Every structure is written in structure tokens, then in C-alpha cells.
């Protein structure tokens, strides 16, 4: 298989990320990291960045990535087929984590295919909720240092009119969108519950893309 190199634009972007974030990313050095949704758009960028860092570290970060189709990932990004990126066959609800420690988890998995969302909104919601449960149970079992739940603006519905861009979906899209939105928002109270009961630690600083305060505030609003 021909090894494709990283595109120069991606290389430049990663270098800019490393320069902007600085030494905060050093906390990944030598860690074991699980990334769900690692084969998607955001996940792939995370893998690109971590692999770039690993090439410069004496003690690289090993990343475990559940995927339903390892073959598709290998075809899409062959340069990310590396010893420090381990693909775990299976979906987010049913993957086997190896006999290894797990220091950190970035949970970014959620069905994003519009066709699947429109055809089977209940299935999408079930996958999101069961996937969250599976990952939180693993986090508690492994006693991870940090757990980051990545979501998107889709869970918040209509945005304020002063925003430059907004996407409003009507008609047949309303029910599927509601299913995904509800499932993702329900994941936030689950994070809070595990944080309280099992003492999971949420990241802060540059890696804390989802602040704990925002998570708790949103959860309280959902429970009202």
C-alpha cells in the first residue's frame, strides 16, 4: 500500500495549533488515550495533531480508536496507520478495550449521516445514549484522569439572531434532529452523574473544550 504523506496545508495548520496551545499538550505525552469518533472530521484532526506531536516526543501518546470500518479509515488516511494509533473494531456501543490502562477519554462519537438520521432517528438516539453509557462505564473502570465530552451546536437548537450563520431545519428533518439533539443533551446529565458518584475528572484549560460549569448548567436546565 502506498504511504500517503500529510498534506502541506494540514501540516501548517497543525504547526499553528502547536504554537498557539503551547506546552499544554505536553500532558498527553506518554499517555493512553481513547478517542471515540476518531475517524470522523474532528477526530481525524485530533489524530493528525497527536501523531505530529508523537513524532517529536520521546514518550509518545498511544491512541485507541473504535471504528466500525478499519478498512475505510486506512484508505482515507493511510499515513495515520501507525503503531501509536490502534484501531478497535466495533461501534461505540460494543468495542473491546485492550488490556491496557486508559488515562484520558475524548468522547466525540455520534451518527452524523443525514440519511441515517432521517431514516432511523430512534436508532440514532439509542446509539448515542448507549455509546455514552459504554464510555462512561469504561472511564469509571479505568479511573481515567480526564474525560472530555465533545458535542456540537446542534444540541442547542435555534441560535440567537445576531449570529452570522444559523441552520434551521423544518419539515421531515424536525423529528430526526430532535432525536439527535435530545440524545446528546441527555449525555450531559450522565457525565455529571458519573462525575459526582465516581469522581471522574473533567479536563480544564486548553483541552477543556466543554467546561464543567456549562455542562452542569445545561444539565440543570434539562432537569427542570
Can you describe this structure?
The chain has about 220 residues and is of the alpha/beta class. Helix content is about 45%, strand content about 10%. The protein has a five-stranded parallel sheet with strand order 3-2-1-4-5, sandwiched between helices. Helix 3 links the parallel strand 2 (about 60-65) and strand 3.
Secondary structure: elements and pairs:
Layout (H helix, E strand, L loop, with lengths): L7 H14 L10 E5 L4 H14 L7 E6 L2 H7 L8 E5 L14 E4 L6 H6 L1 H22 L3 E4 L24 H25 L13 H12 L1
Parallel strand pairs: 1-2, 1-4, 2-3, 4-5
Keywords:
alpha/beta, disordered C terminus, single chain, Rossmann fold, five-stranded parallel sheet, 224 residues, globular, 7 helices
CATH superfamily: NAD(P)-binding Rossmann-like Domain
Query: What is the global morphology?
Result: globular
Q: What's the helix count?
A: 7
Structural class: alpha/beta
CATH names the topology as: Rossmann fold
In percent, how helical is the residue content? 40-55%
Topology pattern, helix = H, strand = E: HEHEHEEHHEHH
Let me know the largest β-sheet: 5 strands, parallel
CATH class (first level) name: Alpha Beta
Per CATH, which architecture?
3-Layer(aba) Sandwich
Q: Could you list the spans in which at least 5 consecutive residues all have pLDDT below 50?
A: 168-175, 201-224
Mean pLDDT: 77
Distance N to C terminus: 55 Å
Note the beta-strand portion: 5-15%
Please, how many domains?
1
In short:
The protein has helices at residues 8-21, 41-54, 70-76, 114-119, 121-142, 174-198, 212-223; strands at residues 32-36, 62-67, 85-89, 104-107, 146-149.
